[in-house]
Amino acid sequence: MHATNHPAPGEGEAFFSLPVRVYYEDTDAGGVVYYANYLKFCERARTDWLRAMGFEQNRLYLEQDIVFVVRTVKADYLQAAVLDDLLNVVTTIDKLGHASLVFAQTIRRDDKPLFEALITIACVNRVSKRATPIPPAVRAQFATLVQTR
Q1: Rounded to a whole number, what is the largest CA-CA distance in the chain?
Q2: Which of 13, 64, 89, 127 would be a feasible disulfide site paired with 18, CB 3.0-4.6 Å?
Q3: Where would I find the beta strands (DSSP E) of 35-129?
Q4: Is 148 among the domain residues?
Q5: How many domains does the chain have?
Q6: pLDDT tens across 25-57, in order?
Q7: For a pLDDT cut of 90, what percent of the chain falls above it?
Q8: What family does the Swiss-Prot or TrEMBL record give for this protein (predicted)?
Protein backbone atom coordinates (compact mmCIF):
# COMPACT_ATOMS: atom_id res chain seq x y z
CA MET A 1 0.00 0.00 0.00
CA HIS A 2 1.28 3.43 -0.88
CA ALA A 3 0.10 6.80 0.33
CA THR A 4 -0.75 9.32 -2.32
CA ASN A 5 -0.92 13.07 -2.33
CA HIS A 6 -3.27 14.33 -5.08
CA PRO A 7 -2.81 16.83 -6.52
CA ALA A 8 0.60 18.34 -5.78
CA PRO A 9 0.63 21.31 -3.38
CA GLY A 10 -0.52 24.45 -5.09
CA GLU A 11 -2.60 22.59 -7.69
CA GLY A 12 -6.20 23.06 -6.52
CA GLU A 13 -7.52 21.00 -3.66
CA ALA A 14 -4.62 19.53 -1.74
CA PHE A 15 -5.23 16.36 0.21
CA PHE A 16 -3.44 13.28 1.40
CA SER A 17 -4.83 9.79 0.99
CA LEU A 18 -3.66 6.78 3.00
CA PRO A 19 -4.97 3.27 2.26
CA VAL A 20 -5.60 1.13 5.34
CA ARG A 21 -6.56 -2.55 5.38
CA VAL A 22 -8.72 -3.68 8.30
CA TYR A 23 -7.07 -6.55 10.16
CA TYR A 24 -8.49 -8.83 12.82
CA GLU A 25 -6.67 -6.81 15.50
CA ASP A 26 -8.64 -3.71 14.43
CA THR A 27 -12.02 -5.26 15.12
CA ASP A 28 -14.17 -5.97 18.16
CA ALA A 29 -15.82 -9.28 19.00
CA GLY A 30 -18.47 -8.62 16.34
CA GLY A 31 -15.94 -8.19 13.52
CA VAL A 32 -16.55 -4.45 13.31
CA VAL A 33 -13.72 -1.91 13.53
CA TYR A 34 -13.43 -0.81 17.16
CA TYR A 35 -14.44 2.86 17.44
CA ALA A 36 -11.08 4.12 18.75
CA ASN A 37 -9.22 2.58 15.82
CA TYR A 38 -10.74 5.12 13.43
CA LEU A 39 -8.79 7.75 15.36
CA LYS A 40 -5.62 5.64 15.06
CA PHE A 41 -6.09 5.44 11.29
CA CYS A 42 -6.47 9.24 11.21
CA GLU A 43 -3.31 9.70 13.30
CA ARG A 44 -1.33 7.55 10.88
CA ALA A 45 -2.56 9.60 7.92
CA ARG A 46 -1.63 12.93 9.55
CA THR A 47 1.80 11.62 10.53
CA ASP A 48 2.48 10.18 7.07
CA TRP A 49 1.38 13.44 5.43
CA LEU A 50 3.84 15.40 7.58
CA ARG A 51 6.55 12.89 6.68
CA ALA A 52 5.70 13.20 2.96
CA MET A 53 6.12 16.98 3.28
CA GLY A 54 9.56 16.45 4.82
CA PHE A 55 8.62 17.14 8.44
CA GLU A 56 9.24 14.11 10.61
CA GLN A 57 7.75 14.57 14.05
CA ASN A 58 10.78 13.12 15.83
CA ARG A 59 13.06 15.66 14.13
CA LEU A 60 10.73 18.53 15.05
CA TYR A 61 10.82 17.24 18.62
CA LEU A 62 14.61 16.95 18.78
CA GLU A 63 15.61 19.96 16.68
CA GLN A 64 12.88 22.51 17.37
CA ASP A 65 11.50 21.35 20.74
CA ILE A 66 7.95 21.06 19.45
CA VAL A 67 5.29 18.39 19.39
CA PHE A 68 1.87 18.32 17.79
CA VAL A 69 -0.88 17.20 20.17
CA VAL A 70 -4.57 16.59 19.70
CA ARG A 71 -6.64 19.33 21.34
CA THR A 72 -10.16 18.45 20.20
CA VAL A 73 -11.92 15.82 18.15
CA LYS A 74 -15.36 16.16 16.60
CA ALA A 75 -16.22 12.79 15.08
CA ASP A 76 -19.17 11.22 13.29
CA TYR A 77 -19.37 7.46 12.88
CA LEU A 78 -21.54 7.02 9.79
CA GLN A 79 -21.22 3.35 8.88
CA ALA A 80 -19.20 0.38 10.16
CA ALA A 81 -15.99 -0.89 8.61
CA VAL A 82 -15.37 -4.62 8.93
CA LEU A 83 -12.61 -7.20 8.69
CA ASP A 84 -10.67 -7.14 5.40
CA ASP A 85 -12.15 -3.84 4.21
CA LEU A 86 -9.75 -1.65 2.27
CA LEU A 87 -10.27 1.85 3.59
CA ASN A 88 -8.97 5.18 2.44
CA VAL A 89 -8.16 7.89 4.98
CA VAL A 90 -8.49 11.25 3.22
CA THR A 91 -6.95 14.22 5.00
CA THR A 92 -7.17 17.94 4.29
CA ILE A 93 -6.28 21.03 6.27
CA ASP A 94 -9.47 22.88 7.11
CA LYS A 95 -8.05 25.80 9.10
CA LEU A 96 -4.59 27.09 9.95
CA GLY A 97 -3.99 29.15 13.06
CA HIS A 98 -0.88 30.64 14.63
CA ALA A 99 -0.23 27.70 16.97
CA SER A 100 -2.83 25.19 15.81
CA LEU A 101 -4.50 23.69 12.77
CA VAL A 102 -7.66 21.77 12.06
CA PHE A 103 -7.57 18.64 9.93
CA ALA A 104 -10.71 17.41 8.18
CA GLN A 105 -10.45 13.65 7.84
CA THR A 106 -12.78 11.17 6.19
CA ILE A 107 -12.43 7.40 6.19
CA ARG A 108 -14.02 5.87 3.11
CA ARG A 109 -14.74 2.43 1.76
CA ASP A 110 -14.90 2.86 -2.01
CA ASP A 111 -16.75 6.18 -2.32
CA LYS A 112 -18.83 5.82 0.85
CA PRO A 113 -17.82 7.86 3.89
CA LEU A 114 -17.75 5.71 7.02
CA PHE A 115 -16.21 8.19 9.47
CA GLU A 116 -15.71 11.95 9.43
CA ALA A 117 -13.75 14.05 11.90
CA LEU A 118 -12.46 17.54 12.50
CA ILE A 119 -9.32 17.21 14.60
CA THR A 120 -7.66 20.27 16.10
CA ILE A 121 -3.92 19.87 16.58
CA ALA A 122 -1.92 22.25 18.79
CA CYS A 123 1.77 22.98 18.44
CA VAL A 124 3.32 22.67 21.90
CA ASN A 125 6.80 23.35 23.25
CA ARG A 126 8.06 20.03 24.58
CA VAL A 127 9.82 21.64 27.57
CA SER A 128 7.24 24.18 28.78
CA LYS A 129 4.25 22.08 27.61
CA ARG A 130 2.63 25.33 26.42
CA ALA A 131 1.29 26.31 23.04
CA THR A 132 3.92 27.76 20.73
CA PRO A 133 3.83 29.08 17.17
CA ILE A 134 4.06 26.55 14.37
CA PRO A 135 7.62 26.84 12.94
CA PRO A 136 7.70 29.17 9.89
CA ALA A 137 8.78 26.50 7.36
CA VAL A 138 6.10 24.09 8.54
CA ARG A 139 3.44 26.82 8.65
CA ALA A 140 4.35 28.00 5.13
CA GLN A 141 3.89 24.46 3.80
CA PHE A 142 0.58 24.09 5.63
CA ALA A 143 -0.59 27.44 4.23
CA THR A 144 -0.28 26.09 0.68
CA LEU A 145 -2.57 23.20 1.61
CA VAL A 146 -5.44 24.95 3.39
CA GLN A 147 -8.74 24.17 1.70
CA THR A 148 -10.49 27.09 0.06
CA ARG A 149 -14.23 27.30 0.13
Answers
A1: 46
A2: 89
A3: 66-77, 86-96, 100-109, 112-125
A4: no
A5: 1
A6: 999 999 999 999 999 999 999 999 999 988 888
A7: 75
A8: Belongs to the 4-hydroxybenzoyl-CoA thioesterase family.
